[in-house]
Design brief:
The chain is of the alpha/beta class and about 230 residues long. It is built from nine helices and seven strands. Strands 3-2-1-4-5-7-6 form a seven-stranded mixed sheet, with helices on both faces. Helix 5 packs across helix 6. The structure holds S-adenosylmethionine (SAM). S-adenosylmethionine binds next to strand 2, strand 4 and helix 4.
Length: about 230
């Protein structure tokens, strides 16, 4: 059985799409998606030898070698432009996911949807999506085994549309998550808020010149979060 986190990602893939799952590890996501009728085929990309071998084994074991192509490579270099309809990148930090999108920009031609699942630092991804005119059409926040995961679903479009003018708060917390205000969302941001307040009070005691700019940014984030909760 697939984790709730990856199942939520699969549910956001357009039905019948050909996907590329980048950083696929065991290729659980594309195997599950194909066996349950969500996709017509997949490329599973892996940069690391161990996970690559796990992916190859899993695809063999499930007899999906004809429909799931496991390829070794860095990020989007494993696909050609117009080869897939949808790209999934899951279980990594937001900085790494953003780097993969930025370095692979040329391969996004023909891609109709991105389904991204950062473990942390999702604001990096949202900034990149704004800069490259990908519109967030859905977001999810999932609590599994005591950890919080976010899913960002984006399509080419009007990147600022979901933000309702509140770009800064939206980039930080997610424009759609902020609207939905689910209990997982308030749990996460109440925790973050207390954490930031603690950092600020420690920094205020130190008060070095260097920390003043950082302090200002933290104080600003604190008021954005307080407004959203
Ligand atoms: N996507 C799976 C999931 O969500 O359960 C696996 C997540 S695992 C933590 C991250 C995987 O991404 C690792 O197997 C790692 O080798 C791979 N990875 C990291 N950077 C990558 C890159 N630039 N290109 C392709 N794969 C990468």
């Amino acid at each position: 059985n697939l984790s709730i986190r990856l199942e939520e990602v699969v549910k956001s893939i357009p039905l019948g799409a050909k996907i590329a799952d980048i950083g696929s590890d065991h290729a659980y996501l594309p195997c599950f998606a194909y066996l349950n009728g969500y996709i017509s085929g997949a490329v599973a990309g892996e940069i690391t030898e161990g996970p690559l071998q796990s992916a190859i084994q899993q695809v063999k074991k499930t007899s999906l070698t004809d429909v799931i192509d496991v390829r070794k490579g860095n990020g989007l270099e494993v696909i050609s432009p117009n080869e897939v309809d949808c790209i999934t990148i899951c279980g990594m930090g937001g900085t790494l996911i953003t780097m993969i999108l930025e370095e692979g920009k040329a391969k996004l031609e023909g891609v109709k949807r991105l389904v991204l699942q950062p473990n942390i630092g999702s604001h990096h991804i949202r900034s990149w999506l704004i800069q490259h005119n990908w519109e967030i059409i859905d977001e999810k926040i999932i609590e599994e085994d005591g950890r919080m995961y976010e899913v960002i679903v984006a399509e080419p479009g009007n990147a600022l549309a979901p933000y309702n003018g509140e770009v800064e708060a939206g980039v930080l917390m997610g424009p759609i998550l902020k609207e939905k205000r689910s209990s997982a969302f308030t749990t996460k941001w109440t925790y973050e808020l207390n954490h930031l307040k603690q950092i600020v009070s420690q920094m205020e005691q130190a008060q070095s010149e260097e920390s003043k700019a950082k302090l200002q940014k933290l104080t600003q984030d604190i008021s954005l979060i307080e407004e959203a909760l």
